[in-house]
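Section 3.1 - Work completed
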Amino acid sequence: MLMTYFFHSIFPVSSGQERVEQSSREMPESEEAQVILMCNYTTTSTSPNLFWYKQLPNRSPTFILNQYTTEPDFINKYSATLNSTSRTFPLMIKNLRVSDSAVYYCALSEIAFPWLPL
C-alpha cells in the first residue's frame, strides 16, 4: 500500500538571518518503510532551536521533537539529529503506517519552547 506524505516549511519566508527550507512535495511510500524528511536551516545563532511538528487534516500542528527531546508518544517512531556543520535537521520516520500521512513542519526558533500553544 502506498501512502502520501506532505511536508513543507512552517516558516517559508526568511526572517532576517533565520530560515528553514524544505521541499514541498508528496512522498509515496510503502507501509513499514522508513523515510527521511530533510530540513536545511540558516541562522546567526550559535545554539539554534529546531523542531518538527506533524499536522493532520483539520487539526492543529502537534509537536514531535526538537534536538533535545522527543514527545513520549513519538519516541519509537521519530528521530532527528541536528548537524550544525551541514546545517540540517532531518526527520526519520520509522515503520510507516497509513496514520503517518500528514503535513510535517520543520521550525527554527530563538525561543527554547515554541511548541506551547500556537
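Second construct:
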Amino acid sequence: MSGSNTSAPGSTASSPEPLSFTVHSQPDPRALGEPQQRAGRLRMLLVLAVCAAPVIASYFTFYVIKPKGSAYGELITPTVQLPANLPLTDLQGQRVAAESLHGQWLLVAVQPSACDAACERELFVQRQLREMLGKERARVDKIWLIPDDGTPRPEVLAAVQQKGVEATVLRVPQEALAGWLKPAEGKTLRDHFYVVDPLGRWMLRAPADPDPKKFQGDLSKLLKASAGWDSPGR
C-alpha cells in the first residue's frame, strides 16, 4: 500500500529498542542530621511566636499593665464574663445563645422598647461611633438590649436595622442583665455604652452622655491593640 510504513516480510530492518525508566529513591528523612532537625523545629517555633505576638501583647497590656489612666471611659477590672445562660431572645421570641455573640467586639446599648428622644439619640450615637472607626468598623457589632417585653416602634426598628449599618436587637430580662452589666454610681444602665471583647468579657464602660470623638479614641486603641483576636465580619 502506497505510503505504508510496514516492513515487508523478511525485512532486515532492526526493531526499535524497548524504553526503560530509572526510578530515583527519595531522601530518607532519618538521614538528616540532628542539627538540621533542630534548625527546623526552631524555625517552626519562631513562626508560631510571630503569629501569637499581637494576642499576647494585647492581653498583657489590658489585663496585666491595666492602663487605667489612658482611657476616656472606665476600664472594668477584673472583666466580667458574658453569662453563658443569659436568657437572650430576638423580637420574635426565639432563644439566642449568648455564645453566638462571641468573636466580635460588641458596642452595647441598653434602652427600653418605648424608645424616647434620649433613646433615639443614644442609638444614633452608637451608629456614628462605629462608622467613625473607618476600616476597623467591620470588627464591631452594635447590640441594642431591651430589658422589657414591649415592641419598639416600626420607625425606630427601621432606623437601627438599615442595611449596612444594622444593629442586633435582643431582649433580656432586667434582673438577668443586671447580673452582668453595671452602671456607674448614681446612673442607670441606659446611661452608658458598654464594650465587650471578642471573648465575651465586658471590659469598658463609656461615661454618661459621652463625647463621641473621645470615646471613639478608646475604641480605636482597643482595636489596634487587639489585632489578631478576631476577624472582620461575623
